[in-house]
Design brief:
homodimer; 444 residues; alpha/beta; nicotinate phosphoribosyltransferase; TIM Barrel; seven-stranded antiparallel beta sheet; Nicotinate phosphoribosyltransferase (chains A, B); phosphoprotein (chains A, B); Nic_PRibTrfase-Fam (chains A, B); Aldolase_TIM (chains A, B); ligase (chains A, B)
C-alpha cells in the first residue's frame, strides 16, 4: 500500500445510500460474504456511434485505493442511522480485497463488451458500484466524443479547453480522457499537475479590453512571453487585429487565434493576409464552439490546430456513457458459479463469467467482438494470433497494478488507443449515426 | 478567515493556463492593478427554456476561500515555466481582496441577467474566471433541468439519484443543485454529509439476484430495515414481485419501486394489485430514465414519488448553462469607469456596471428583467415596491458573507427559489421550447 494513501481524502461516501442498505441487510441475513461477480457494460453506444473508447480506469483505481471508512465517515453514518452498528464495525475494516479485470484504458468497446469484472464478496463488490460507474460513465463519455474529434482533425493537433463548461473536478477528468483519446494538450493546469498532460493557452479578450488599443495589448503580451505566442485577433475587426498582431510581434509571430465568425471563410482570408504580411509561418488556431462536425467541415481550409471546449467535456450530445454495473454470477453452495440476470424485458443482461476477445482477419482488421461465456480464461481457446484477448488484471486480491495508474498509466492508455485504432474497420471513423462497427457475439 | 481554511486543498490550479499568462503579461506591463469589473451572464437560456435558476454560488464562495497558491502550486508553476518569478511572488500572496455581487442562489434568471459582478484589480479578478464558470455553468445546468421536473411533478416528491451518471464530484454538486431547485432528497451520501441534504435509497436488483428467490431477498431486507421500506419489484415478473413484497412485509409495506416497463400502464396495474392485497397505503415510486416530459406524462396515474437519474445530473439535454465571464469596465486615469466590450458580431456584450431589478405588476407578477446600466445602485431609482432588486453582496473587500455558504446557505437558496417561483408568469412552467418568460431590458 502506498505510504501517501492516508493523506488522501476518503472516497467512500461517493456512494448511493442503497449500496450501504444492501450491505446492511446482507450482513444481517448472512449473505454478505457470498462470492460474487459484478460486471460493467453498456447496452448500446451513446449517440449511435460506431465504437466507444474506455476511459477512467486509472482514475478509478486511485479512488478505490482511498475507498475506506474513517472516523468521519463512520460518525456521519451512525448519526444519520444509515446502517446498524454491526455494519459500521464491518465498514471500519473495509478495504477492497477482491480482484478486478477489465478492458485496458484506451481500448475500443462495443455494446455489451464486459468492460470491468469485479470478483469479490457481495458486500465488498456492491459498495463500488456507484463510484465505478461515476468514473467510467463520465470519462468514457468524454473519450467517446474526443476520439471522433481526433479522427475529424486528420492529424492536426487538438487542445481541450472546456474546463469552464464542466464542474471544476470533472474538468480535470475531461482533460485526461480527451488526452487518452488523442488530444494533444489541455488548458487545465490541475490536469497538467495531476496527470502530466501538456498545458496551453495565452490570452482571452479581457486582456485586449484591459488596454487602450489592441496593439498595446499585443505588445504587452509579446514583451512578456515572446513573439512565439498566440495572439487573439477577433476582439474588434479581424483584419485589423491580424495587422496589429504582426506589427507587434513581427513575422515571427507564433500563431493567431480566431474565436468567432464564419470560420471556413475567415480562415482562408486570415491565411492570405498573414502571408501578404510576410508572416508565412504564423499558424492559425480556431476555437469557436467546435465539435467533430465543425472540425470535419474545416478540413479543407488552412487551420493549423483546434481548441475544443463545451462539446468535448459534455460528450458532444451524450454526456454519460450509459454503462451499468450488474451482478452476473454468485458462487453456489457447491462451489460453482450460478449465472444470474434480471428479467425485465428491455434491460436483459447475460449472466455468468465472460472472457472477451477481438477477432481479427488475416489483415489484422477486427471483424467481431467475441465474448466467451464460461468459467474464465482457463476454459477458452483464445489468445491465438486472430483473437486478441481484451482483459487485463487491474487488481489482484486487493493489490492494484500500478502500471495502470498515475501519469504513466495515462500515457500508456493514450498509446494503447493510438495502437488499436488502426485495427478497426474503416467505417469506424464515420461521424454519422449508425450501427456499431463490430458485432458483439456471445459464445458459450 | 475561517480557521479550518488551511486544511482544505487549494483550488487555484482549477484554472485555465491563459488566466495566469494574462496576469504575467499584465504584471510586466504595469496593468495588473487596474481596477476592473467582470460580469457573468448567459447570452441565451439553454434548450429554449423559459427561465433559468442560479445555482453554484455557495459552492463557489467556498472554493474562492481556498483559492491560494501554496508551495506545491508555486513549485509546479515554476518547474513548468508557466509564469515568471515576479508573478510567482505575486501569486504567493494572492488572496481575493475584491468585492462580488450577484443574483441570490435559487433566483430565476434570463438572457443577459448579470448573474455575478466581480470588482477587483484585473489580476485578482481574471484569475477567478475559469473556476467561477465551472461552478456556475454546471450547477445551474442541473438546477435549470431540475426546476422543470419539480414543476412537472405537481407536488409529488422527487429524489435525485443520478450519481452514477456524473463524475463522482459533479454528482455531489448535482445533488445540491437539484435540491435547491426543489428536489426533496438524494441518493448521494457525500451530498448528505457536505450539504445536509436528506438521503434515500434501499436496494438494487443485485440484492434480489444475490438470493435464491425474490421473496427471500425481500424478507432479508424487511428483517434488516423494517416493513416501512421500499422494495424493488421488477427483477422478474412485476405482479409476482408485488405479491412477494406484500407477503414479505405485510400490508404495512412502505413502498414498491418500478425501474422498467411501460410506466403509465404498469403503475395503474400495480396500484390495483396493491389495493387488492390490502396494501392500500403502500406507495409507488418510479425511477426508469425519467425526465421532465416523462414525469409530466405520469401526472394522471397514481405515482407517489419519482427518482430521477441521468437527465437531471446532465442538465436534460443542456449539460452546461452557457454562461460567460467578461470584462465589462475598467477604471480610467480620471477615476471613472470606462465600459469595454468585444465587437465580434455574434458575441456582443454590453459594457459597464449593471444594477438589475425584476419589475412586477400590481398583482406582484414579474413583467420584466430590467437592467440599469450606470455607476451603480446609488444612481438608480430602484427598490420600489414594483422593482425587486436582484443583487446581494456575496464578498465585501475579500470577506465572504457566510450566510450564503454551507448547508445553511443551501437551505436558504432552496427557500428562495420556492418563494420567487410564484412571482413568475404562468407560462414559465411550460415545458415546450419557447421564448424566455420575461424580456430583458437595459436602461441607461
Amino acid at each position: 500500500m502506498n505510504p501517501t494513501t492516508s493523506r488522501q481524502a476518503s472516497t467512500a461516501l461517493h456512494t448511493d445510500r442503497y449500496e450501504l442498505t444492501m450491505v446492511d441487510a446482507a450482513i444481517q441475513h448472512g449473505t454478505a460474504d457470498t462470492e460474487c461477480m459484478f460486471e460493467v457494460f453498456a447496452r448500446r453506444l451513446p449517440g449511435a456511434r460506431r465504437y466507444g473508447i474506455v476511459a477512467g480506469t486509472g482514475r478509478l483505481l486511485d479512488l478505490i485505493r482511498n475507498f475506506r471508512f474513517d472516523d468521519a465517515e463512520l460518525s456521519w453514518l451512525r448519526e444519520n442511522e444509515v446502517v446498524t452498528q454491526r455494519t459500521l464495525d464491518w465498514l471500519a475494516d473495509y478495504r477492497f480485497s477482491g480482484s478486478i479485470w477489465g478492458y485496458r484504458e484506451g481500448e475500443a468497446y462495443f455494446p455489451n463488451s464486459p468492460l470491468l469484472v469485479v470478483e469479490s464478496s457481495f458486500a465488498e463488490g456492491v459498495l463500488l458500484e456507484t463510484l465505478a460507474l461515476s468514473v467510467l460513465n463520465y470519462d468514457s463519455a468524454v473519450a467517446n466524443a474526443a476520439t471522433r474529434m481526433v479522427t475529424a482533425a486528420r492529424g492536426r493537433p487538438l487542445a481541450e479547453m472546456g474546463s469552464r463548461r464542466a464542474h471544476e473536478q470533472s474538468a480535470v477528468a475531461a482533460a485526461r480522457a480527451a488526452y487518452i483519446a488523442g488530444f494533444d494538450a489541455t488548458s487545465n493546469l490541475e490536469a497538467g499537475r495531476t496527470w502530466g498532460i501538456p498545458t496551453m493557452g495565452t490570452a482571452a479578450h479581457a486582456f485586449t479590453l484591459l488596454h487602450d488599443s489592441e496593439e498595446e495589448a499585443f505588445r504587452a503580451q509579446v514583451a512578456a512571453v515572446g513573439s512565439n505566442t498566440t495572439l487573439l485577433v477577433d476582439t474588434y475587426d479581424v483584419a485589423d487585429g491580424v495587422r496589429a498582431a504582426v506589427a507587434a510581434a513581427g513575422p515571427e509571430l507564433g500563431a493567431v487565434r480566431l474565436d468567432s465568425g464564419d470560420l471556413p471563410t475567415l480562415v482562408v482570408e486570415v491565411r492570405e493576409l498573414l502571408d501578404s504580411l510576410g508572416a508565412t509561418k504564423t499558424k492559425i488556431t480556431v476555437t469557436n464552439d467546435l465539435d467533430e462536425h465543425a472540425i470535419a467541415a474545416l478540413s479543407a481550409v488552412p487551420v493549423d490546430s483546434y481548441g475544443v471546449g463545451t462539446s468535448v467535456v459534455t460528450g458532444s450530445g451524450s454526456p454519460a456513457a450509459g454503462m451499468v454495473y450488474k451482478l452476473v454470477a454468485r458462487r453456489g453452495d457447491d462451489g460453482g458459479w450460478i449465472p444470474v440476470a434480471k428479467k425485465s424485458p428491455e434491460k436483459i443482461s447475460i449472466g455468468g463469467r465472460k472472457y472477451p476477445v477481438r477477432r481479427l482477419n488475416s489483415a489484422q482488421i477486427a471483424v467481431e467482438e467475441l465474448i466467451y461465456v464460461g468459467d474464465g480464461p482457463e476454459d477458452s481457446d483464445s489468445g491465438s494470433a486472430l483473437e486478441r484477448p481484451l482483459f487485463v488484471q487491474l487488481v489482484n486480491a486487493g493489490v492494484i497494478d500500478e502500471q495502470f495508474t498515475g501519469p504513466e498509466g495515462t500515457r500508456r492508455a493514450r498509446e494503447h488507443r493510438a495502437k488499436i485504432l488502426s485495427e478497426l474497420p474503416a467505417d469506424a471513423s464515420r461521424l454519422g449515426r449508425g450501427d456499431p462497427t463490430l458485432p458483439t457475439t456471445f459464445s458459450s
